[in-house]
Amino acid sequence: MGRFLKKIKASEIVRKLTIKAVMERSLINENDRVLIAVSGGKDSSVLSWALSAIRPALKFNYELAGLHISTDFCACCKKSVLCKRLEEWGIPFTDLFVPVIGRLKEGEKMNCYWCSTQRRTELINYAVENGFNKIALGHHLDDIIETFFMNLCSKGSMLAMPIFIKYRNYPISLIRPLALLEESQIIACAAEQNILKNACTCPYGQNSNRRDIRKKIADFTGNDGDIKRRILKALGEGKSDLLTDTY
Q1: pTM of the entire predicted model
Q2: Confidence of residue 237 (pLDDT cuts 50, 70, 90)
Q3: The domain spanning residue 91 has which CATH number?
C-alpha cells in the first residue's frame, strides 16, 4: 500500500483512505446526521473536507454540520475563515462558547483531560438536542497508536482510541473516519487544500508523555505507514476489538 500511496496526491490519499475506513467500519450510513467537531486545527478541517468530498463515491445520503467550541483560554481560531471554508464544502457552521477554565473548581489546574471532557460533554448534548446521531472526530492513525501505547506503558491497560463508539445512555455514536491516515498525510492534504496556513493550534500543546511515546513509535516503526496500519489491524482483531466499543 505504501508504494501505491506515494504515487498519488495527498488529497486523493485522504479521500481514498477515508472512504475505506467509512465502508469497512460502517461509520456512516444512509440518512445519518453527522456532527463534525471542528476545532479549527488541521485534523478536523481535513476531516470536514474529506467527509464532504467523499459524498459522490459513497452514493448514499447523509447530512453534515460543523460545531466549533470556543473557550475562555484560546482565541487563535480564525472563525470567520473556518465558517467560510465549511460553507464552501456545504457544511453549516455553529460556534458554541464553553467556559472550560471557568468550570474548574478552586485549586484545580487546567489540563488536556479536563478540556476534552468538557468539550465532549457539550458535543454530545448539542448532538442530542439537535437530532444528530453521529459525532465525527479528527483523530488519525498516529493518535490512535500513540494513545494505545501511552495507556499500555503508563497505566498498564490495553485501552485504545476506538474508531467507532456506540453510547449506551445517548442515541449517539462517535466515529473517527481519519483512522487509516498518518498525520504526515493529513498535513500534506491540508497544504494542498490551502487549509494549513489558517489552521490554529491549542496553546497547551501536546503533553510530554505523548511526545515521548511518539518518538519511541517512530524509532521502532521507522515511521513506516504500513507497519502502523498493521498495528491498527492487530488492535481490531481477536475476541476483544479495541477499535470498537460501547460506552
Answers
A1: 0.89
A2: confident
A3: 3.40.50.620
